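User: Hey, quick favor. My workstation is busy. Could you predict this chain's structure for me?
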Amino acid sequence: FFIINIIFIKTSLALTDEQFNRVNSLIEQQNIEKSFELLKIYQSREEELSSRSLLLFGKIYLELGQPLKAINYFESVYYSSIELADYAYAGMANSEFMLGNLSKSKAFALKALNINPNLTDAIIILAQILADENLIEKSDKLFLSIFETSSSSSYAGRKYVETLLRRNQIDEAEKILKKTLINNSIDAPTLELFSDIYWLKGELNTA
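Assistant: No problem, here it is.
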C-alpha cells in the first residue's frame, strides 16, 4: 500500500509533540491516507526519518495489518532513541500479538510498562493478551482503568469492545461502545463496530 524506504536513522525526535499527536490520532482513527500525507509534509525538510516518524510508520503498518513490516520500524526506533524505548516495546508487543506470539508480546508489553507504567498502548495490548490467556478479570480491570482515563481518543474503548466481541459479550460490548461515543467524537472505526454489533444481534436494518 505504502512503500517507505529507510536509508539512515536519525537519533533526533524531529517531530514536535503537536505534530506527533496529530498524526497518531489520525492513525488511531484509521485515517491512514491522511496520516501518511501529514507525515510526509512534516518530514519534507528532513533528509532522514526521525525516530518519531519511524514509530508512526510502524503504527501505520499495524493498522494496515502488516505486523512483520511494523516490527522492523519499532526495532529501528528502539536502536535510534532511548527516549522512545517504551513506545518501541509497545509497538513490538502489538506486532507479536498480531502474529500470534503471545509470550513474546507479553514480554515486550511488560518491558514497556516497566519503563512507563502509564503508557496507553502497552496497557491495552497487555489487557488483550490477558484476555487471550483467559485471565478475564485482570484483563477487564486493565481495560477499564485505561478506558476511564483515556478521554481524548476512542482507541482504548474500541480495543475493549473488540475483545468483548471475541468473547461473545455483545451486550457489554455495546454498552462500552456507547460510553466511548459519549466521551469522544464519533469516527469511522466506532461506527463500523456499531454496525458489527447490530449485525451480531440480528438487527440487520440498523447495521
